[in-house]
Inverse folding.
C-alpha cells in the first residue's frame, strides 16, 4: 500500500515500457515489507535536465538511468562515484539528503554474475566484443579484477574500441588491443582466452537467430558470458553450451546490477532469487 511515508524510486529512460526493472524492484520491496515503490518514467532527451530537477523537487529517493541518458545525466549530478566516472556512464542515482550521486552498478552486476557462474577472473585472459555502454562497464570491471583483455568491435565504429582500450589501458597499465570484429581476429584472440564476453546487442530479441561468434570458434575451457538477457538463452549461449563451455547469461548481470542499486537506496541486500523470478516472469510477459 502507498502511504504518506512511501519512498519513491524509479527508472528514467526512453523507452521504458519494455523494462523489467519495475517488476524486479517492486517484488523485492514487497518481499522485504519495505515502504518503497519503483516507477517507470519515460523521459525524452530534451526533458532530461527537467526530469532530474523534478526528481530533486519531489525528493525521489533513487533512480535507475537507462538508454539514452546514461552519459547525458552525468553533468546534472552533484557527485560521481569514481567507478562511474571511469566508466563514463551512470545507471544509478542515490538521493542522499538532497545530494544526487551517480553510480554504475553494471560493472558490479557483471562481476557478481561471473562469480555466480563460478568464474574466478584473477590472472585470466578475456575477449570482449563491443565498445558501447555495456562493454565499458565490463572492461573496467575485468581490468579491476586483474584480467588481461582484447576488445573487438565492428569496423565502422572501431574508434569507439580504440578509445575504450586507451581508457582501460590508462587505468590498469596493461596493453589492450582494439581490433576489428571478424572471424580471423576472433580466432586469434580466442586461441589463448579463458573468457569471451559478448557486450554487443547481437542476438537480442527479435534478432535472436543472430550470433557474434561462429560456432566452430567455441571450445571447452572457454567460459562464455552474454550480456544480452532477452532471450535468456541466446544463440551464442546455446552454441557455447553445446560446445562444452561454461555459459553465463545476461539475466544474472541484470539482477546483480539491480540488487546493487537496491542496496544503495535502502541499505539492505535484496533477495536475488525473488528479483530474478520476477524479472524472468516479466520478460515472458
Ligand atoms: P550500445 O551502447 O548501443 O552498444 C551496442 C554495442 O553493440 C556496440 O558496440 C555496437 O557496435 C554493437 N553492435 C550492435 N549491432 C551490432 C552488429 N550487428 N554487429 C556487431 N556489433 C554490433 O548498447 P549497450 O548499452 O552497450 O547494450 C548492449 C547490449 O547489452 C544490449 O543487448 C543490452 O540490453 C545489454 N545490456 C545488458 C545489461 C545486463 O545487465 N545484462 C546491462 C546493460 C546492457 P558499434 O559500436 O559498431 O555500433
Amino acid at each position: 500500500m502507498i502511504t504518506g511515508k512511501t519512498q519513491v524510486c524509479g527508472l528514467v529512460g526512453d523507452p521504458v515500457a519494455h523494462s523489467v526493472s519495475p517488476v524486479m524492484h517492486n517484488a523485492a520491496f514487497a518481499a522485504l515489507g519495505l515502504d518503497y515503490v519503483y516507477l517507470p518514467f519515460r523521459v525524452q532527451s530534451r526533458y532530461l535536465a527537467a526530469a532530474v530537477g523534478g526528481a530533486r523537487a519531489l525528493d525521489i529517493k533513487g533512480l535507475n538511468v537507462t538508454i539514452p541518458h546514461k552519459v547525458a545525466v552525468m553533468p546534472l549530478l552533484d557527485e560521481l562515484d569514481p567507478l562511474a566516472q571511469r566508466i563514463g556512464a551512470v545507471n544509478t542515482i542515490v538521493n542522499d539528503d538532497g545530494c544526487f550521486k551517480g553510480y554504475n552498478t553494471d560493472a558490479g552486476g557483471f562481476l557478481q554474475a561471473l562469480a555466480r557462474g563460478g568464474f574466478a577472473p584473477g590472472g585470466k585472459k578475456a575477449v570482449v566484443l563491443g565498445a558501447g555502454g555495456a562493454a565499458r562497464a565490463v572492461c573496467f570491471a575485468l581490468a579491476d579484477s586483474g584480467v588481461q583483455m582484447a576488445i573487438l568491435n565492428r569496423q565502422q565504429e572501431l574508434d569507439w574500441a580504440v578509445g575504450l582500450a586507451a581508457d582501460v589501458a590508462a587505468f590498469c597499465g596493461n596493453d589492450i588491443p582494439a581490433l576489428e570484429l571478424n572471424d580471423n581476429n576472433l580466432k586469434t584472440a580466442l586461441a589463448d582466452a579463458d573468457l569471451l564476453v559478448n557486450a554487443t546487442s547481437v542476438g537480442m530479441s527479435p534478432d535472436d537467430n543472430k550470433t557474434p561468434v561462429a560456432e566452430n570458434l567455441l571450445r571447452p575451457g572457454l567460459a562464455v558470458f552474454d550480456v544480452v538477457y532477452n532471450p535468456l538463452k541466446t544463440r551464442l549461449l546455446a552454441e557455447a553450451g553445446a560446445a562444452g563451455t561454461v555459459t553465463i547469461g545476461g539475466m544474472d548481470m541484470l539482477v546483480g546490477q539491480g540488487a546493487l542499486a537496491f542496496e544503495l537506496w535502502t541499505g539492505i541486500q535484496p533477495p536475488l532469487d525473488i528479483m530474478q523470478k520476477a524479472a524472468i516472469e516479466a520478460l515472458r510477459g
About this structure: DSSP finds ten helices and twelve strands in the chain. The CA atoms of residues 172 and 272 lie 31 Å apart. The chain has two domains: 7-104+255-284, 107-248. The chain has a mean pLDDT of 96.
